[in-house]
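Morning!

This is the sequence you dropped in the shared folder:
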Amino acid sequence: MLADRPSCRVLALALAAGGASIAQAQTHLWVNPAGGCWCTPTNWGPPSVPNQTSVVDISVPGQYTVGFSTGVAYCSRFSLLNPDATLALRGGETLQLHGTTHRVDGVLRIGDAVFGSPAAVEAFVPPFVLFEGTGRVVLNAHPQLVLPFAVIRASGRPVTTAPGIRLEGRGAVQADLTLQGTLAPGVGPGAIGEIQVDRLILGPSSVLEFDIAGPAFAQADRLQVSFPSIRAGTLRVRLAPGFVPSIGQPFTLITFLPNGAFDALDAPGFELLPGSAVAVRYVGFPCDPDLNQDGNADQDDVAYLVSVVGGGENPTGIDPDFNRDGNADQDDIAALIGVIAGGPCP
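The structure's back. Tokens below.
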């Protein structure tokens, strides 16, 4: 009979094994709105610690942190659906992923910015790893430690961040990274950081975001890329409040991104330099005292700036920090009056 053929018996055994594996998969729902340890069974429903086959759901409302104990924790895939929740790995802790797709609408923080052992998210089995959602994946290595102390480790498997995901901080992605969201060394505007990746594959929706806070090497965000990669997406560069570079001063942002071209350059005051590294040079800002864009530079522009500095509407979209000192205040009004009277641009 057909069912007695060896190949069919092997197939039947394989299907049975697969069915057993699926049957063992279980959704673990976080139930503690005060936060707590992943390792505590009563924080979950059902009351057991997630394992390699678990589908983890962290959606209970509230502002809280789910932490770990030293060692390795497991899940097949996780959904951090609560935007006010943080999934936080400290030094010496690893979250091992056995499935492909993971949702982050809150914060996945890898590392605790202190001296100690590495913290890692590790892809153990799946052929690829995808982070999707609207949240942040934060690599949080201590500034004086080597970057792999906060790491996404994929052992040769590619990692993808979907549109809406922001990957930021200071650490390493030990994988080929396909970026469809935002990558921003540093945590927050003006916070300087560095991220290392093996290879960077940029999608059209990708944004590379860099802050420059001073003239020294360690005062500008950096991205280290180990293998040749192709430019695409948007390159965004911002000055930290209070810092104005010298005209002509260059800054290297990405060590090795030799091919292609960015779809958009969003870098007011900078021009992009040629070369295999991604570097920009400060050229300054155009000085246009006609703030209300009526064709004249006069008292009406002063009144317009006074209103915007005071919190009024800004239909022409000007930057009220006219003198570029990092503050929008009376000094900008004085600088504008000086330029209208024939003085130099600040």
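Headline: Confidence is low (pLDDT under 50) at residues 1-23.

More detail when I'm at my desk.
O.
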